[in-house]
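To fix ideas, we now present one chain and its tokenised fold:
***
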Amino acid sequence: MPRAVRRFDSSAEVGIVQSFPFRVGDVRIQVRYDETVVLGNAYYQDVSALLLDTDPTLISKLAAMHPLSADWLVETATKIAIARGNVDGWIESLVCHEMALRQERDPTLLFRGTSVSTRAIDTLMKVAGLDFVDRLIGDAVRNIADNEYACEVDPMRLGDSDNIDVHWKALLRLLQLLWQGIERGARECPSILRRTFASIRSATQAFYGDSSSVVQVRYSCISSFVFLRLVCPAMLSPRAFGLVARAPSAQALRTLTLLAKGIQCTANLSDFTAKEPHMQPMNGFVQHCIPRLKLFIDAISTLDGPQISDRPGNLWTVDGAHELAVFCAH
């Protein structure tokens, strides 16, 4: 039997009325209404097979034909693949397709731009990775947001009474605690992400073959997603990722920004250069953690050993029939 999914969307501004002789304020409410008729899964089998099996790169062609809707198309197709249970193989097909067309072989630029495959992986991480990122950095971020540590190390931002040595000591201590949480959280990586990361690593290693770049690529191809697109953005916008209930203060956010710089530099398998001389005292930590970073990436992108099972009821849900209905109606 078909079912209707209704959504309503409109905006209205409502004055707050209280028993006072003056107006207290306004509340702006935005509501959206949509109605989608969702048929049984059997009605969408041909579309699903065409999109994910017959031509896995069809979504790339559709996104090129409809650039204004590209983000929505890729996001919806990714959710369909998640619900169907073959998102890792589908994403691997997208990665292989894009690499076959790739002219630039510089490994430092791999997955740094926006493409269909990066959009698909971003969507997957937003659906299945929010609990994972909380397990990696949630406690450390909430600690910093609550305590508002002062850790400014840029001489141009320091006040007359600030002691940069004290700030550096505090910043490195927080960085060490943050990194310990990331290492402990590796075993919490959901299997759907682990399988996808393993597929990405396999595709990129095959592309670079026996070249000297393959050693770096087998780690950068995963760190560019986990850190550049998940962990560091969550540190810079913790409320948007559900890590905190309220936005951190300016001082706490500055400390999180400095810590994110250190994590990202480690994920890039490099250190701070003359472009940011005030951050160079962090290079010792970065070089110490690069081997540990590689162990972390190995742990979340291989299928050996115990894995955390996916728990859709607790972590995420995707209504595949609804996504297919919306996709077909677009």
Observations:
- The mean pLDDT is 85.
- DSSP finds twelve helices and two strands in the chain.
